[in-house]
């Protein structure tokens, strides 16, 4: 069986779905690997490195021969048509709001897997693209903030005077937020953080951050069984806003990472709060692709509001592509490995497997995922 790794059709995507390491591993499973010419260049992986790992360098025409296509983003209509019917396509599919694309993948006979639906269970940790990419995004958010900030992050006591430590506030202490806290601490900032899940409190403290939150009864019940946040009530949001309003006015850097699965990102920072900050302050909105946590943040732009810069870069993991691709490639490899027969090198989909059940969008010509399948009459 043949695995194909294309150049991403979205020119802004800098990541790639295989690394020399995963190519070697795929070969080890008995699979043939074809990498489209130049697929790794934006992640600093040359064709020669893929070849050395055992891949053949091919062209877009090879897509039609592949049994498995590994991608970063959902294939567009033209790509879907180029793949052979029955092929497995494994990518981040971002399917909500793109139901037509899901349908056309079914019509093309593809078995399309959405990696972002991987259950967060121990067995699947190595396949968790949300975590591997959010971790890097959290790091990169602090690096981007530091680059926009006109002052130093650590306290510096020098003969010429003392530079105070930057005050960094991280809103949303999940995977990205915790890495942002750790990164800001390493740079010497004074770090505070907030979240609506009680479990976050200890994690923030263990990284040396100070936890700030409205800890009422709603807070105590805000974590779902899956470990995610619930959408909070209007009343809670008002209490939270009042609590953080004073705090934000005193911060140099605010990093927001708050998301709620299947919902728009919660609005945490109002235009008034932005105005309350000192000129020279920086806000990085990591949720900008999902509607944004910050009023006035613009996707793909750095906005200046009276001297406060709001950073809304898209595809944060793609800004650190060489690292992001290595981890992403490993996530995909680990999942594909579960579908390969080690003796024969055959790839097959077991719809009863819990990882397959959670991620498989289309199969056998139909949309099969419960979130998208046509409801039964
Ligand atoms: P996420 O990306 O969905 O959200 C980011 C953070 O924003 C979360 O911590 C969330 O609680 C927070 N948030 C939501 N609404 C908020 C609001 N109004 N105000 C402030 N914060 C708000 O979450 P995530 O980073 O994917 O992680 C969610 C949880 O899953 C974490 O506890 C994480 O440790 C856990 N997790 C478990 C596994 C595993 O067991 N395999 C893997 C990854 C993550």
Mean pLDDT across every amino acid position:
96
Order of helices and strands: EHEHEEHEHEHEEEHEHEHHEHEEEHHEE
Query: What level of helicity do the residues show?
Result: 25-40%
Strand order of the largest sheet: 3-2-1-4-5-6-16-17
* Uncertain runs: none
In this entry the ligands are: nicotinamide-adenine-dinucleotide
Structural class call reads alpha/beta
Largest sheet: number of strands, sense, barrel closure = 8 strands, mixed
Distance between the termini: 39 Å
Number of contiguous helices: 12
Rg, please? 22 Å
Multimerization state: single chain
The counted number of beta strands is: 17
State which percent range the strand residues make up. Answer: 15-25%
Any idea what the shape is?
globular
How would the blueprint of this fold be written?
Layout: E1 2-5, H1 20-28, E2 32-36, H2 47-52, E3 56-58, E4 68-73, H3 77-82, E5 88-92, H4 99-107, E6 111-114, H5 129-148, E7 156-158, E8 161-163, E9 167-171, H6 175-186, E10 190-194, H7 199-206, E11 210-211, H8 217-220, H9 234-249, E12 253-256, H10 271-276, E13 282-285, E14 302-305, E15 308-311, H11 321-337, H12 354-359, E16 360-363, E17 366-367
Parallel strand pairs: 1-2, 1-4, 2-3, 4-5, 5-6, 9-10, 9-12, 10-11, 12-13, 13-15
Antiparallel strand pairs: 6-16, 7-8, 14-15, 16-17
Residues 120, 125, 128, 130-131, 134, 171-177, 194-197, 199-200, 227-229, 232, 257-261, 266, 268 line the site of nicotinamide-adenine-dinucleotide.
Organism: Zhengella mangrovi
InterPro entries: Ala_DH/PNT_CS2 (IPR008143), AlaDH/PNT_N (IPR007886), AlaDH/PNT_NAD(H)-bd (IPR007698), NAD(P)-bd_dom_sf (IPR036291)
Domain Alanine dehydrogenase/pyridine nucleotide transhydrogenase NAD(H)-binding: 146-312
